[in-house]
């Protein structure tokens, strides 16, 4: 079916154009499946999926769990507050406990960058047949969000064939707190791989100049970029200028929990300069969709009226698309696991 070779999904910087195409194609098939009646596919029967979220989540965790269940997996969720971590058990020992119980697909979120990568390395070194999916690590990467955003945009531009080509030459504006956003970083890898032009917009404190070169060199830790021709990244400080000619606009949450002080003068001032409203969107010169990974601060990144307007807002569509995207990832990763489950 494809040349998919990944044993873990840790970062979209490692994805080739064909990897993106494979995930989108599978997600489109899963999305077309009825959600009632013959609900479940047997692909993950007998497999145990464990979600280990060391940082809060509403969408990602539930969406992975639903995706796993729709593929007939068993699902166990780890909750840090009530676990032995609070008794001093190390993170790796906690994870190994689940692996000993038969967990083969681990979805890991952590506030520190690279925790899912380090766990994957440690489990590989121990010879475990386990796949790690990054559910968001620090400021670094949120691959399933990047993929569901890509899928949502591709479906918007090409509803019947949402392939990477649907993004080629499109201008996608990302507004807001790029600095603290792992979603923005994953979107940069995904969108430029598909040939889109990405315009980043925000104040210099939240969109540093260095982001203009984000995808210019091989991804960190890789000898070469798996994508031969990437789209462009441009920075614009003025929102109206950024919006001119846009094909879609994505706005990001102000991640105040990750911010040092004094990055912004006031939330009102931020909304006036960078908040999306129906009026501001007129600068695009034509109707364009708006995305947000959630959770949304209403009246800050975007007005409540815009968020709730189904003619413009793709936010609920993003949430819906998260399930087939995560089904596709689980499905692809289970093919590299040992065929027989080692569960006790
Ligand atoms: N839910 C996304 C994340 O976990 C975006 C956000 O929190 O603003 O990164």
Secondary structure layout plus pairing:
Elements: H1 17-31, E1 48-53, H2 59-70, E2 74-78, H3 91-100, E3 103-110, H4 115-125, E4 131-137, H5 143-157, E5 171-175, H6 182-193, E6 197-201, E7 233-236, H7 239-243, E8 248-251, H8 267-274, H9 278-281, E9 290-291, H10 304-307, H11 315-334
Parallel strand pairs: 1-2, 1-3, 3-4, 5-6, 5-8, 6-7, 8-9
The protein binds aspartic acid.
Residues 136, 142, 182-183, 253, 255, 293-294 line the site of aspartic acid.
What features would you describe in this structure?
The protein is an alpha/beta fold. The chain folds into two domains: 12-141 and 320-341, Rossmann fold (3-Layer(aba) Sandwich); 143-318, Aspartate/ornithine carbamoyltransferase (Rossmann fold, 3-Layer(aba) Sandwich). Helix content is 34%, strand content 13%. It has eleven helices and nine strands. It has helices at 17-31, 59-70, 91-100, 115-125, 143-157, 182-193, 239-243, 267-274, 278-281, 304-307, 315-334; strands spanning 48-53, 74-78, 103-110, 131-137, 171-175, 197-201, 233-236, 248-251, 290-291. The strands form two sheets. The chain has a five-stranded parallel sheet. Strands 2-1-3-4 form a four-stranded parallel sheet, sandwiched between helices. β1 (48-53), α2 (59-70) and β2 form a beta-alpha-beta unit. α1 (17-31) packs across α11 and α5 packs across α6. The longest helix has 20 residues, at 315-334. It is globular and about 55 Å long. The structure holds aspartic acid. Aspartic acid binds at residues 136, 142, 182-183, 253, 255, 293-294.
